[in-house]
Amino acid sequence: MPDRPLLLPLLDAALERRGRLEPADVESAAREARLPLAQAWEAVNFYPRYSEQKGKVRFLLVDDPVARARDWRELNNELEAAGRASGHEVATVFSQGLEALSPALVVADGADWRVFAPIRMADLRALALGKLPPQELQALPERLAGNQGWLFEDTEPPDFPGAAALIEAARSADLRGLGGAFYPVWRKLAAVRVQPEKEKYVIVNGDESEPGNFKDRWLMEHNPRLVWAGAALAARAVGATEVFFYVRGEYTAALARVEAAREELEASGYFEELATHTFRGGGLYICGEESALLESIEGRRAEPRLKPPYPAEAGLFGKPTLVNNAEALAHLALLAAHGAAAYKRRKPKLFSISGDVERPGVYELSLGTPLKSALESAGADTNRLAAVLLGGAAGTFLKIPDALDLPLDLSTPQLSGDSLGPGALVAFERGRDLWSVVEGITAFFASESCGKCFPCSLGAPHLHAAALRRERGPILDELFLTLEAGSLCGLGQAAPWALRSLLQRFEEVGS
Question: Which of 228, 330, 392, 487 satisfies CB 3.0 to 4.6 Å to 210 for a cystine?
């Protein structure tokens, strides 16, 4: 890392001290980080938390697919009434990884957020009298781990088996990135390892921001040691000098627990000569795109980079960099601990299962498990289901019972255009409002577009408007194509998938 502080942590420290950012704070941070003042102001204006002021209390209803399918409009109306009565500002905020406990409410005082879940109509009415709901939540309850599994065990960090052995184990086990792209981990390891530079980086991507997904949140809050172990093993395998654990900005409990695990492993000597850092993310969905994440750490707007070069060649600060999802690096530690043969027999994968199931939560299942079995493991009555959103917001609706035999596998989608994505399954019984879900998903993509490329920044708002109008026809098909073919990164490319699958598979939905 360059011999200077990083911009975002400096801004965060100033925000923590004062409760708001003043021009002098931005100037001081830019000076310490040795960055142009204009670049510092670009970051301040780009990341939402720097515009929030302490003392300005807001009630924020969490907008996620589970809440949208249920009493979303009634909840929102009740919140607006509470805001009028109490004089507080009300608004909505997109998914906070709380789908297993939805609906949820955030009470924001500047950048300080208190989360309450699940909330009821009576809780919202009580806000008008200044009474907060009783169900305050710091972290996801540990009970949301719905079954037994390797990824739920707090095991001792494994020894380093050697670079060649670890890379071969990842290749033999066909370990993939588990954020949704499924790129082979061994190829990334090998690509960074062969780079001649002495300075290299490993980055844990813990910026889980997509509605419907919360398995990485659970992992970071309840087993961060396993993720750190995988990151340290990856660093030794590629010859990296530093590791950054990038945690989603809103996940404050995860941030604290990741840092506590880092300090514990540092004190035990597990990191040896490796420099490690916990980094609070920018708080935007685009930060999860690997090159935008690098821009964020470097103190710029989180916008995707043009490729090539790829991060393995020129990543953080222009140096070779391995970027992998938090779950994928936890799996790397499991490979080192158990060996490729045992890992392949088990084929573990975390799934976020929510919606109309009896026991929503995080489940470790074997890849290839049929959709029906996965849903039933969480207590779903598949006879009552109409649809499943596969993959989260950047996913597709599957029609039930047509898709119940679909094997949940990384590389072999059985239905046209479908993908497992990060591993989200959101179940909807008959009678749920799927159009409301799509309205929320398209609003999410329209809001989260970084603005760098026109197909996404212009197309995503048009997509949301089309969902509100319940539009159909060739003009909409052209918009789908424009977003998929013209967008720079996966945000715009995936934005149409949920709406298109709804139109293709659910002809009976209202028009």
Answer: 392
C-beta pairs of 229-232 under 8 Å, 24+ apart in sequence: 229/157, 229/158, 229/265, 229/270, 229/330, 229/333, 229/336, 230/328, 230/329, 230/330, 230/331, 230/332, 230/333, 230/334, 230/336, 231/202, 231/204, 231/329, 232/157, 232/265, 232/270, 232/271, 232/274, 232/276
**Domain coverage including residue 24:** 7-51
Query: pLDDT > 90: what percent of the chain?
Result: 91
Q: Which residues contact 283 (CB under 8 A, 6 or more apart)?
A: 47, 48, 49, 248, 249, 250
The residue among 370, 403, 429 that closes a domain is 429
Domain count, the chain: 5
Q: Which neighbouring-strand residues pair with 245?
A: 204, 278
Query: How many helices (H) does the chain have, and how many strands (E)?
Result: 20, 14
Smallest CA-to-CA distance from 8 within 315, 293, 289, 282 is with: 282
CATH at residue 166: 3.40.50.11540
Contact 492, 483 (CB under 8 A): yes
Whether the CB-CB separation of 334 and 155 falls below 8 Å is answered with no
The residue among 483, 497, 481 whose CA lies nearest residue 441 is: 497
Do 160 and 128 share a structural domain?
no
Do 231 and 327 sit in the same domain of this protein? yes
pLDDT in tens, 346-368: 999 999 999 999 999 999 999 99
89 CB-near residues (< 8 Å, 6+ apart):
56, 57, 58, 59, 83
Predicted confidence (pLDDT) per residue in 444-499, tens digit: 999 999 999 999 999 999 999 999 999 988 889 999 999 999 999 999 999 999 99
Report, as an integer, the average pLDDT of 153-159. Answer: 92
The CATH number of the domain holding residue 388 is 3.10.20.600
Name the residue type at position 156.
E
Q: Which two structure tokens, joined as six digits, stand for 150?
A: 């390797």
Q: What are phi and psi of 302, to 5 degrees?
A: -80, 90
In this structure, what are the phi and psi dihedrals at residue 505, rounded to the nearest 5 degrees? -110, -10
Which residue stretches of 87-131 are H helix?
Answer: 121-127
Structure tokens at 359: 């026991």
Q: Could you tell me if 409 and 501 lie in one domain?
A: no
**pLDDT for 511 beyond 50:** no
* Tens-digit pLDDT profile for residues 239-275: 999 999 999 999 999 999 999 999 999 999 999 999 9
Phi, psi dihedral angles at 478 (to 5 degrees)? -65, -40
Among 110, 137, 164, identify where a domain stops: 137
